[in-house]
Amino acid sequence: MRLRLSVFLTFAAAAGLAQQKPCPIDVFLDVSQYEGAGAEYPKPRLEAACEGDELVVRSNGIPHYEFIQVTPNPLLEQDYEFRVPLNPKKADKPTPIPLLGSEGFSVGGLAIFGPNEGPVPQEAEFGDPVMHSIMDACMGHTALEYHYHALVQRCLSDVKDGERSPVLGFAYDGFAIRGPWGCLDAECADVVKFKSSWEKVGNPDTDSWDAFDYVAKEGPEYLDQCNGHTDESGDYHYHATETWPYIIGCYAGEPLGMRNRGRPRRQVSENRSGRRPRRGPGGGRPGPEQVSQAAAALGMDAGKVAEALRVEPGSIKPVNPAAAARTLGVAETALREALGGGGNRPPRANQNPAGEPECFFRCGQSDEDAVGCTLTPEHKVVCHRPCDDNKCG
Questions:
Q1: Cα separations (Å) of 219 from 17, 229, 239, 250?
Q2: Which of 79, 102, 122, 292 has the most CB atoms around it within 10 Å of its CB?
Q3: Residue 28's closest CA among 1, 65, 68, 53?
Q4: Domain ranges in the chain?
Q5: What does the pLDDT average to over 166-172?
């Protein structure tokens, strides 16, 4: 599957790479050789190059394989530009991946998300989408964009199980994400299937991050808390695993790509107030002063608040105000106000001035062509009046 790839590498950039790691453009798929998502969708587009000290990938976010719709959300063309360090370095300490949104990209040019879903539907908010069986055969589905929550090697490579897995993608810190199989010696005579060291301690129906804890294990096949390791050649990389967190559990390096990621070509339409629907709890990680301030406002112990928010020393889990509020037994609006971030929660549905609900889907996104729709408890979309192109059908 490693075929010819259209490359936009300039002579200047090539000269600048003389003392750097070789440009890994050969790991990316030549998506033009595949039929793509289907006749009704744009052809997939993918270009990769190295510019200075960065790996740059541009893509339209269309799968190179047939798209099978498993959520009510349509497949939309994107306009991505992913940038990651060409020579990544491990940070002094790991940092959390986003609770919502992408953490990296695949060798097919598609976004990679973390091991939890969005805040809709309420009864399964932030739960494990793999466990909930809302993924296609390649462990992808659509929300604002087609993205993965886990990786299936055969969807991105023709390397057979039991052989050393190739690179399947990159995290935003620049470290490669390989498939599950890897070498334990320089000659690669001993190949093992790597395993996650995260253990299930609760029910991942809601907020999967509270349902798993990292527990270090002995044995060369077990990965660190970020779901990675340093191999026999001294190279650090992540491995996709069969069990949670499936891809990465945290960033081992500095996530450059998060700051430079391109935006989808077609976005969710603005609601009538002129604001775009939020994709989930916003803001950065609360610092000690914010936690102390919130604890005082709520009349609680600061350590208890920090633990609920998952910002206690050493924590690498992303902050989830909704889950923290449940743990603390307070309203989420009260917690957000106590933290100084305002009390507005991401809406579960948008209303226009006439009171007719827009079509609001399970991952917290709306179809910009659909109005007058609701979502049943079985996650079926029901139209109360006609929608463009039967997007709510």
A1: 37, 12, 15, 21
A2: 102
A3: 1
A4: 11-260, 288-338
A5: 97
